[in-house]
Each structure stands twice: as structure tokens, then as C-alpha cells.
Amino acid sequence: MIDLHTHSIFSDGSLIPAELVRRALFLGLKGIGITDHGDTSNIDFIIPRLVAVAKDLNRVLNIRVVPGIEITHVPPVLIAETVQKARSLGAQLVVVHGESIVEPVAPGTNLAGIEAGIDILAHPGLITEKEVIKAKENHVLLEISARKGHSLSNGHVAGLSRKYGAGMVINTDAHDPGDLIDLTTAKRIVLGAGLTEKDFKAMQKNASRFI
Known about the structure:
The chain is α/β, with parallel strands linked by helices. Strands 1, 2, 3, 4, 5, 6, 7 and 8 form an eight-stranded parallel β-sheet that branches. It has one domain: TIM Barrel (Alpha-Beta Barrel), CATH 3.20.20. It is built from eight helices and eight strands. 43% of the residues lie in helices and 17% in strands. β3 (37-38), α2 (43-60) and β4 form a beta-alpha-beta unit. The longest helix has 18 residues, at 43-60.
């Protein structure tokens, strides 16, 4: 199992990165992305620290830690330049907080993130067919979420992604220890979204390119 969307104390998570990674390793994960919430006020604080701790942990642990960022509630017109800034600071994984149906995310966020060439569009809510097609063209992965609330639109995201051949990943969006999941639970969530074991394997292959 590879989980590319989690949070530490550098945003609104409850664990320091080392404990977050340890708990993921205990559950049998092969890779974990730490993608704390960021905008232009804090990405220069978050990303270098995650890069540093990932470098240390990757030397000694049997799990791959990927330092990243989740660009969150940034106005769509500013997303592209924020993505560029994040990459220049060393983010190896750039996620955009998509238009979840349970949060007041600005309309146009999904498309702006996709057009900016991000890696993953998190919990994209009622994403449109046009946006899914563009995600496929831009090799942006669409997230099937294990997180309460955000997961309510998993079936919609899964259906359009399969229809148009867009890549997907299964992530937890973990903020607390109990949010992390093992391989068996991840498979059940994927199946619950109307997908198959074959789809799950494809999702893990998509995630593996980051580790």
C-alpha cells in the first residue's frame, strides 16, 4: 500500500513526521507522501522541513517518504505560480485540495490545478467530464479518498475516471493515527467506489512512480 496524501503537525495533523511514518510502516505501507496544507504564507516553512526529514528517514527505514505539499484554498488564479514555487522549494509531490462537496472550495480550483500540472488532484468532488479529460491529458492523478466527507463523491470520480481513462490513486488524507489504513481496507474502499481489483493494482502502480 502506498498513501500519497497525509498531514503532520506542520499543518493540521496530530503527529510529527517521524511518528506518522512509523505508524505507516507498522501498517505495512511501502510509501507515504507527507503533504501538509500550504499556501504562499507557509510553503517556504513546510517544504524544506519535510525534505530534510524525508532525507533522514529514507536513509534508515524500509519505507519511502515523499516530501510534498497540498495547496489548499488558494484562489484558482494563483495556483499555477504556487505550484511552481512549491517545486522550486523541493516538493517532490504537489497535490491540490480539490473541490470537495463538504468544503467551500473556490469554483475553478480543479481545473486550475490540472492545468498547472500538479501530481494529484485530491478529493475532486463533482469533477466535470471536461476536467477529467484534461487530467488524463496532463497526467494528473485523481484521488479516491478514504477520508470521511471527501469520500462521498468517490463513486462519481471513479465512474468518470474509468469512462475517460484518467489515472487514479487511493489516499487517506490522514490527519490522525486512526486515519491511516492498511492494504485490505484500501482495497475495500476502491471496491466500494465501484472499481475492481484490477483498478486497485493500477492505482498502486500509479502511486509507485513517486517512490
